[in-house]
Amino acid sequence: MRNLKNIHRSVVDFPPELHLTATAWDLATDAIICAFGPTKDNIIVELKRVHRSSNAELVRHKSQLEDGHENIASWDAPCPLPDLDCDKIVNLHYFADNLVACLVLVGGDIVVVREQPQPGEDKIEIVGSVDVGITAAVWSPDEELLAIATQAGTLLYMTREFENVTDITFTSDDLKASKHVSVGWGKSETQFKGKRAKAMRDPTMPETVDEGVLSPFDMRKVAISWRGDGAYLAVNSIDSESRRVIRVYSREGILDSVTEPVDGLEGALSWRPAGNLVAGIQRLKDHIDVVFFERNGLRHGQFSLRLSKEEIDNWGAEIQLKWNVDSSVLAVCFQDRVQLWTMGNYHYYLKQEIILPEASAHSGVGYLQWHPEKPLRFNIRSQGQLQREEYISVVARGSTVPPDDYGVVAVIDGRNLRLTPLGLTNVPPPMSLHEIDLSHNAIDVALSGQRLSGPSVIIAVLHTDGVSFYKWGLKLKPVTPPTLIRHVSIPSRETLS
């Protein structure tokens, strides 16, 4: 019954000539390591440290970039692969214990940047190279293993000293690792067609059996995600150009399982750090679902992203998923926005929707990176901008002082505000006594205190279109739904400027 409330937001705008391509957290200083480039027109990679602003309110750096920023290094990064216009950073990781940044590039180079090199060490060094190119790379949570997926369809494990310890090849025989059994419910000849057959059917059995048909919107990308304890990792890739497969490997490189076929499964992947669920995206004809798998590859539920057909076409083409460090929030990243979802009583609530700059809609998905230690702190990089956000988990409640102690609790769920006076009725979530349908996704909600509104509760709901005020009388029996009494529009940023 908790909501997410924003307590810090800072925004850094970058000049047009600087293209932010990767970020990493510096845990020692709580700064953000930013990588700029390379691009088609400029092969230089620049590494800078963006320090946290001491001001808790909105801060914008529109003057010189060096204000609050620290230059670390810069170098030329020509792409070694002839079929690419320019190289691209696949992964940026910063080791705060020895002040070393590691960059993995799609062209195959693994570059380390040492801020304080020891005698005999170079400040910038290419410590390894994969000739065929790299499609994905992620460090393990304990920072001891680097998992790399190559364009040749292999998976490599490297130690922190960049020694190759495992070389695995993806094959179609991997699909035999998990022997999922189809009970035939998808076939007409095995289905009972008699009277009341639908009511008699076992609800645990699917009506149809997926064959793993590829989504027409599949970006053909590869994704890697470690489990929170670093004992297993999952790799999402296309097998034989026929279906998407999520393979699960142990830390020793042993194939543990593969997922069952899922029609429309796409390249998004995030393993819940708690270890019980692997999240992916399934795109169907008229909606998009977040689907979950167990470690053994079997499906374990899903929820819909509640997008209209127009929204799917406009900004739902590419989607990424990111669990936070304590497994309490799942971030769903679109082209021009990021949504934060939480789960309670097996229901997924849309708690926040962060709209990104308009230019981001034409530059790919907004990339979110959770803080490795602070569960509700993250940064979002988009076209020409870096946002730092932090939230807290709070309960929106009314007065607790008699005689106004009705126990009113307001729960945000996207465009629905769920209201229950627990002092009058006991309705367990995700159900509620009344719901308010909003025109936009809610950002925050507040309820009036004691004696402020007599026998009624005033509810203020903040959303992107303004603030809406509702009046809810609780003296009458039965309790009637809240009524809208006023709406105040908030001027847009362009109007204010």
Quick structural summary:
This protein has 497 residues and is mainly beta. It is built from three helices and 37 strands. It is globular, with a radius of gyration of 25 Å.
Describe the structure.
- With 497 residues, the chain is mainly beta.
- Helices cover 3% and strands 46% of the residues.
- It has a 5-stranded mixed β-sheet, with no helix packed on it.
- The longest helix is centred in the middle third of the chain and has 7 residues.
Decide which structural class fits the backbone.
mainly beta
What's the shape? globular
Give the distance, in angstroms, between the N- and C-terminal Cα atoms.
38 Å
Largest sheet: 5 strands, mixed
Q: For the CA atoms, what is the radius of gyration?
A: 25 Å
Strand portion, in percent?
A: over 45%
Oligomer: single chain
Low-confidence stretches: 54-66
Mean pLDDT: 88
Strand order of the largest sheet: 5-1-29-28-27
The total of beta strands comes to 37
Number of helix segments? 3
**Percent helix among the residues?**
under 10%
List keywords for this structure.
single chain; 497 residues; mainly beta; four-stranded antiparallel β-sheet; 3% helix
Task: Please render the helix and strand layout as text.
Blueprint: E1 3-13, E2 20-26, E3 31-36, E4 44-50, E5 60-61, E6 69-76, E7 89-95, E8 100-105, E9 109-114, E10 124-129, E11 134-139, E12 145-150, E13 154-159, E14 164-169, H1 197-200, E15 223-226, E16 232-239, E17 243-250, E18 255-258, E19 265-271, E20 278-283, E21 288-293, E22 299-304, H2 309-315, E23 320-323, E24 330-333, E25 337-344, E26 347-355, E27 367-370, E28 377-382, E29 385-394, E30 396-397, E31 408-413, E32 416-421, E33 434-437, E34 442-447, E35 456-463, E36 466-473, E37 483-489, H3 493-496
Parallel strand pairs: 1-5
Antiparallel strand pairs: 1-29, 2-3, 3-4, 4-6, 7-8, 8-9, 9-10, 11-12, 12-13, 13-14, 15-16, 16-17, 17-18, 19-20, 20-21, 21-22, 23-24, 24-25, 25-26, 27-28, 28-29, 30-31, 31-32, 32-33, 34-35, 35-36, 36-37
